[in-house]
Amino acid sequence: MAEDKSVVKQVEAPPLAPLNFKPRLAPTPRRAPKYPVRVKNAAGQEVILGDPRATRALVALMDVHAVNGGAACHWGGPAAFAEIMAAIHGIMFSVPGREWHEAFNFVNDAGHTENGVYALRANYGFDGMTFEDLKPFRSIKSKFTGHGESHLNPEGVLLSNGPLGSALPQSQGLAIADKVAKRDRVTICTMSDGAAMEGEAKEAFAAIPGLASKARVNPYVLVISDNDTKLSGRITKDAFSMQRTFAAMGALGWNVIPVPNGHDLQAVYLAIEQGIAAAKADPTRPVCLLAKTIKGYGIKATEENSTGGHGFPLANGEKIVDWVNEIYRGQQPPEEFLDWAKALRLDWEQKEAAKKAKAAASPTATAPAVKKDKVQSGLAKAAVRAAQEGLPVYSISADVQGSTGISLFQKSLPDRFIEVGIAEANMISTGAGFAKAGFIPIVDTFGQFGVTKGNLPLTMAALSQAPVIALFSHVGFQDAADGASHQATTYLAATSAIPHTIVIAPSCSEEAEAFMYQAIKRYAADRASGKDGDTYIFFVGRENYPLSWVENARYEWGRAQVLQEGSDVVLVACGPLLSKAIEAGKKLAEQNIKATVLNNPFINRVDLDTIGAAV
Question: HEC string of 300-316?
Answer without folding.
Answer: HHHHHCCCCCCECCCCC
